[in-house]
Fold each of these.
Amino acid sequence: MMQYKPLLIVAALALAGCAATQDVKRTQEPAAAAFQLPSYEKVTLDNGLTVFLMQQKEVPLITVNAVVRAGAVNDTSAGISALTAEGLMLGSAGKSKRDIENQVDFLGASLSAEAGKEGSYISAKFMAKDLDTMLPLFADVLLRPDFDATEFDKLKQREVGGLIQAKESPRAVVGNYFGKLVYGEHPYGNASGGNSESVAALTLPQIRAFYTGFYQPGNTSISVVGDFDVADMKAQLKRTFGEWRSDAAPQQQSLKQGLPVLEKSRVLLVDKPDAMETTFLIGGMGISEDNPDAVGLTVVNTILGGRFTSWLNDELRVNAGLTYGARSGFASYRDSGLFQISTFTKTDTTEAAIDLALKTYARLWEQGIDQATLDSAKAYVKGQFPPKFETSGQLAGLLSDMYLYGFDNSYINDFERKVDSLTLEETQRLINTYFPKDKLQFVLIGNAAKVAPIAVKYGEVTQVNIKDVGFGG
Amino acid sequence: MKRTLSALALAMGLAMAPMMSQATTAADIKSFTLDNGMKIMVLEDASIPNANMYLFWKVGSRNEAPGLTGISHFFEHMMFNGSKKYGPKMFDRTMEAAGGANNAYTTENLTVYTDWFPASGLETIFDLEADRIADLDINADMVESERGVVTSERSTGLENSNIRALMEELKGVAFRAHPYSWPVIGHESDIAAWTLDDLVQYHKTYYAPNNAVVVIAGDVKLAEVKSLANKYFAPIPAQAPPREVKTVEPLQKGERRTFIHKPSASTPNVMMAYHVPATSHEDYYALELLAGILSAGNSSRLYQSMVDSQLALEADTYFPMSFDPNLFYLYAVGAPGVKADALEQELIAQTNRIAAEGVTEQELEKIKNIKLMDFYRTMETINGKANTLGTYELFFGSFDKLFNAPEAYNKVSTADIQRVAQTYLKRANRSVAVLSAEEEMDK
């Protein structure tokens, strides 16, 4: 069993648009090195399908990823995007779920599908020698799902059980509560999995309609990274996916409309009567994926709560011993985003931990950043960059994100230059522009009988029980 | 015994062919041992401009005693809290300013420190590690603050993971003599109790260079590593070897049980464990393949019989590497409305079925392919390479065994799988832990 030192709420706090690539041109002078995206080919087929091909030969493996522009933000019923994606695995082109699983496992391969906030992802990883088996299977799953009724009912039951069970772990659901608190009825408030009642009510005709509406070549990219011959692979992809036809264009609503304006501080208190500790998030609106200041904000957030020696972790964990970890981060979407501070502490130190988090956060404005800290954060962000894009799976994921969020090579290739050019003066502008200073939003999951008297200090309180349906469960 | 040439062997044959020349082989690993007994392994790999250092210390909860449980893990935390040259907080600050990050983990057997950094930071990392190995300064105020951190780590683990709560209780009944009995994080009262002197003694005993294996992988050169190792690590004196762990767990003579009442549990969870030999034992590979046949992928026996049949939301196995004889775990999380007893009976039925009927050649070949794929996935990153090389060096006595693993797996037959199931996965050798909102009632 592993006992990590700073085990933090990472999943809830994916940093905004951090991305880099393998450096293939490192020189003798590390300071002069710049990360460059390894060369790849991007092709748009006649049917509108976007294809990325990137060769990586370190191990004899291939990753194939597809991303469809359809996620929880497109949910007509809560959880439909997630169930549609998972439904792809229930059998296709006459092969049963079990046939597919047997075939994939026998090759030591993996094949999976899931939906997130804005995209649905199908991913396969296999040995290069198995390409001729795995690529057609991947295409069957994506293009010819059977949506078998018996398997669909079983999947629904498992999903409902999983959603209820997730609420046993505050860490697993706190991000869903926060998204709903901030976005309310706006689609960005939709939890990716839906909730136990909405999922139970979904029907096969609804799933089929969602599939037909969104799973189209003009709404999809396929990224292939690994040990293959590019010309052969391109020809094979054209043969395999070239006949896929689009119907009516997918209905993508603009998500820039109706975004919330946070007018006062609010607290969502989630009662878990047997909780030993309080798990909490504090924050507000962040930035969208295409924000030109995203790299600079990554550096500033590193100082506030993005690394072990960050202000938040230093104060709450190292100096005060109140928690095992405290951090902050931006979670960015295509047209909006969140900023969150996250930590946890035993029930009777809840107030001390929240107050210390707020006091530490206020240092951004009261004290600002000094040159030595900025220099350290810049070195850290650059130094930790290349390993994020080392495997074929990581690189295929990056290419999928480039399609989904519409950024290009410069986003990657200019990263280091943007980090280097950040000045102290600029950090102050970023702080004043982007970090929510007041009207903060709080989610507290814990023992409400003990925490409620504290919660009122921070804003208008709404209390729910963790077992209540909704908020991603 | 029949030996078949499986897809695994074919694929490994391919791995040796010129077209796969970029894959790491045993010949790429260089190693040397300093006069103070510290072994250092180096893998030059320039695929990214980064490197890592993994320090494996032969100390874990296995080396503890009642009253001092959890001290290995607590000590892991103290290694970050200040030494002679780099005072309090300066280890992390210096490393991060050089572009590096770090972490550490403690297990029943080992404490492992991981440093990840741009290759330009190599000397800084040597300097930092040498300082805390040779001259750790254990400060009383730091100890008190860190007790709070570890207490939070303990409670947040239990708050968020039923599996963690189950494993803690299950180990406690499965072992009554051997130190594997207690959780790695330790008992709560012990966390509150250890003294400064306990910690000073622990450092001197276990953090001696002769008790470590160091692995460095990435964009480095062997000559550079050798030179830095001689400058920074070689001057640290060796110590007398630590006391050996001599306790042998007495043979279990009948099933043991434990129960956790958790009112907020939405469905019951069941975990069971069987005593099995140490990783160095010849049956390791057969047991590892058996674990895979039971739980790897959706075509596995537990998925098919429990998850696909709507009995469980999850069903899995856990079979850790271990210096001393340890446990082979199975667990399941119930689907809504399913009783703990139904989960338990199905887990038992599946293990008994393998003992009675064996497994198919097809299943065995499948799991060998899965193992080969795991090997390649590990070899995709410098961190995977470093962690796995060190792990094999310690648990199998030599990193060579990593590269021999495909062959060792290939030698395992269906009869071997059935034999280990019959030998170890039997009732008298079993301990069962149940977590549920419903109290078990007297019958």
Note: The two ends of chain B are 48 Å apart (CA to CA).
Amino acid sequence: MSSTDVTAPPDRPDDTKKLDLGPVGHLGDRLFAGLARGSGGLVILIVAFVGIFLLALAIPALANNESSFLFSRIWEPGANPPQFGIAALFYTTVISSIIAMVIAVPIAVGVALFTTYYAPKRLAAPVAYAIDLLAAVPSIIYGLWGILFFAPILRPVIDGLSNALGWLPLFEKPPTDNVGVVFTASVVLAIMILPVVTAISREIFAQTPVAHREGALALGSTRWEMIRMAVLPYGRSGVVSASMLGLGRALGETVAVLIILSVPNGNDPWNSSIFAGGETFASKIANNAAEFDSPDKTGAYIAAGLVLFVVTFLVNSAARLIVARSGPGGKRTRKVRRVGDKPQTEGASL
Amino acid sequence: MSTLAANKPAYDGQTLDLTGKSGGRAFRNTLASVLITLCFLIALIPLLWILWTVISKGYSLLFDAGWWSESQRGITVRREGGGAYHAVMGTLIMALITALIAVPIAILGAIYLVEYGRGTKAAKVVSFMIDILTGVPSIVAALFIYAVWITVFGFNRVGFAVSLSLVLLMLPVVLRSTEEMLKLVPDELREASYALGVPKWKTILKVVVPTAFGGIITGVMLGLARVMGETAPLLILVGYSKNINLNPFDGFMGALPTMINQDRTELALQPAADRVWAAALTLILLVLLLNVLARLVARFSAVKSK
């Protein structure tokens, strides 16, 4: 049949021969394995292509660019010669996402602890589900609700913060009473990333070994001390990586930010305050989709998209690395599941 | 603990109390409980508020038969009437095409990770790339397809291009959930099948995948729910059309997110505002329905492992 038959001694058939399941199975196996491998390879190719194509289209535009791409705040790709830099976009993107994270992570940790160790068992699953539903709300609806209904109640918060901390450039009093500011976008982003951070933290908190928790309780800890001494240290790396994933989500969020943030006038001086308007990478690209008419202009936006891709790539890889390296939670999840045991969750679903 | 607590009255409170906690510790414990419960309540507010806003403002149009059967053809922002048929169909068609492309790749990819590549270097690379794909922002996925579909190949902005970019977003969701499900299938089932002389590929198709089927369906539904609400690819890759266009390869196409986007600048006008909120409610209903169905399927078809 196959070439191995000729070389193998006839009196000692090798193991593969014994297990030969017939030519049909053999061919089917090879085809199917090939398909499966191909799909795996396709995933690698897709990610590589995203980077390569964006780079290929960005390079010509970058070559024509007359300003410093990284350090300029000018964005006039349509000018002759084209001038564009990402400094302002980068600043707004990063600052809004970081503020979102600062707001969302403590609350998410609280919610995760609530569902794992505080909520009555019968309530834990519905509670977890309710928070997960936040992730199901489409982002355009967050945007609309955020600017129309949520932004007005942030007005006093903005006034209070800018009165108290206005001497810092970051909290400088805004020139107008506009509510479509970076701070508003950040709070809405915080709500949007909350379910992501909560879900992962919850899963890791629920896996704190029973021995650790009972040990702490046996030593006379209160519930809070048990959490502080057993649960939080165990779940720390998991929470860090969950926050990074949330950060990655916030960096790339497009439509909610697009709707909420007011774009500053071209003539206005640039404002570093979080109580001013601005544009993120994603909102800039989406806002100007109609401008993709010449290769240079398109290339400028694609270059901005490439930077966003690289930044989210770095943030997300860092999140995964933290889990893989130091995370007892992360490693344990995989192992427990692979054997097919039930994860040691307490009431929490997922 | 309870027996000790029962003894409590025996202590006069002045002597050494071994059963209770010192005031400071008890206070901190209570404070933590209050704060943690508060976190949960705070997190719940936006959900309830958003649902209330969208339902209360959008429900009236949904009872209108025209909403589900007519398009916005010829309807301006100042005029009432018309429906969301074109947008609902557009959203469904684009999501369906996305699923048709993404689901087979996702399931085969998961089979590779669990059945063929388990523990190999290549599988680790694939796994890492899936994580990266999970984190790719929708606007970047859209730009990538723009770069390939429109700039390189010179095709037009059509619904199919949107589907292609949504594939990048749906693929990792379905792949990960399928992978988790396949891992849960007990090895005994596979071994029993091999022992009967069934080849590996048949074992996978006839034993492993059917056992995990419920979980795979759950992943597909969650993936669909995710891509249906995406707006950024629609903004870049297809124009919004008020007319009914069911052909994803030709012309602009309506979709619920772009229908919302179309009228959101004219919210001061009542007919436009009504339509925006009704479209938002329709979209939320579609997405939540898929989510709830996914949960139900997951609950009733969980892999039974010992």
Note: The CA atoms of residues 12 and 18 of chain A lie 10 Å apart.
